[in-house]
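URGENT: need a sanity check before tomorrow's submission.

F., can you look over the Tat pathway signal protein record below? I want to be sure the sequence and structure line up before it goes out.
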Amino acid sequence: MNIFLKKTEDRSKPNRRDFLVQSTAASLGLTSVINSLAQLKLIGSAAASGAGDYKALVCFFLNGGNDSNNLLIPATSGPARTDYQNGRGVLSITDAEFDYTPANATNGYWNGSSISTSAVSSRITPQNAASAYEPTNRTAGYLSGGLALHPGAYPLKTLFDSDDLAFICNVGTLIGTTSVTRANFNTLPAAAKPPQLFSHSDQQVQWQSSLPDQPFSRGWGGKIADLLAGLNSGDLSMSVSIAGVNSFQVAYDQPAYFMNSAGTVSALSGLTGGSPSTSYGGALRNVNLQPTYSNPQSLPGNKYNPLAALSSGADPLAATNYQHTAAGWRLRAIEQMMALQHASLFDNGYNGAPENARITEGLVGNALAQTLNADASSTMDVHFNNWFPNNLYNPRIPDIASQMRTVARLIAGRSALSNTRQIFFVQLGGWDTHTSQIPGTTVTGHYSLVNQMSRSIRAFKDAMDAIGMWDKVMLFSASDFTRTLTPNKNDATGGSDHAWGGHMFVTGGAVKGRNIYGRFPDLTINGGIDCTGNRGRWIPSTSTDQVFASIAKWFGCADGQIGTVLPNFTRFQADLSTGTLNSKNLNFIDFTV
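Structure tokens as predicted:
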């Protein structure tokens, strides 16, 4: 069913307040949700001609504020490394930790044929020249020692080395009406700075809407879905969340479909099983057909009519799509009740909710069935098992990996959905690392989060390669904010606090990988771009709008539609021309792919 998921609550994850704010702010209270769901059947009717390609966009949200100062790290020696060590204190990743040998097979990495415990390195060598990503107010040798990723991000390093992943430095929410500097930060009017800069809930909404200076109404992903809905001909919404309610996918006409991370679809009670063993398989003759409740005179090729007349003879359901079984008769009765028309608009709206739940269950069930093995496992499991060796985590496949596997299965089963555009939302919580950020093992603290994230994304890449869809996928990371460079304690219980601009990454076949984009921050605390005080809270050098605009263009938005998706974009950047993108060091996408 189309369910709203709530995971085990912690301080960094959505709570009841988040749910109410995100749903009501979008004019989607409970009754509105029911009425909006009824529109799902109509979405596919506006399919645009000639749109035969497929693209999937995946928002990988790091809920709680990822400490990206410990994701992309100055290495070896040099001014940036010195600033990093001086500022990080007990949170510093030592240079020796970038080159290591997995302790045993449990911590090993998939090398294409087996789990390897050979020595690895998380150091990276970007293709673009150092001058392209060093801060303009520092000397050319600021990053002379090079860069490395967190040791737990070795799987991401493999993507970086294969030109499939890039980092964008010091990205954050900005208003754009006035340049923010350390000198003017405290004197600028409130309207010139994002409100509630260091608040989890506010910054999550601002990242997912890219509109800090306006009341929330839609997410920028939801806006794209509304604009490009005509590219899809299926009944399933363009937006699918595997991680519950979020602001990113809130839309007017394309409300997100919510799934659980297990990748299972629950049919109506008593109507599962049969042959084939998919939802409603025991009740239907052709499970690939979906019901249409409008009793049309001309029936589309992918639909069946619950109101079809009975035949005479031993099998009265012979001319229908229902099996002449108890399950077939039961489902026919239910769907005929759904097809009834009511004089009351409220009754019709109420009736629309189960209708669309039935349609989406069938569609998603058929899409998932394409990667279903006879033993109920998934053909995608192998790629995730490869990157999550036995005994590394319990359960073996953590929830975020299950979320990514479900996304992979839906992309593999895209033909059943008849959609050429899909927007997915996945989420890993727990990044609010105020205490014990570095406990020293691969399965606890910040290390564990980076480890799960990196292995999940690399396994997803392998799954896409296996079905030839990597060039059609783009995944980007997002988070509330990064965290202070300085620790809040000087012992092992130390962590980091809420900050501002941080590093994000993008990966996919269209990404111009093995590059560092944006501007790497000046890591001088109590100076440079430390916005206030001496904690190392970086003023962003690149706005979220600039990054998201390029992603929206790749996904299919015309240049003239960017202003609808990201109204503040031109405050930061004139256009998306090659010359402008090069001048901003943001030319990270090959738009021809």
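My own read: DSSP finds 17 helices and 18 strands in the chain. Confidence is low (pLDDT under 50) at residues 1-52. If you see anything odd, call me.
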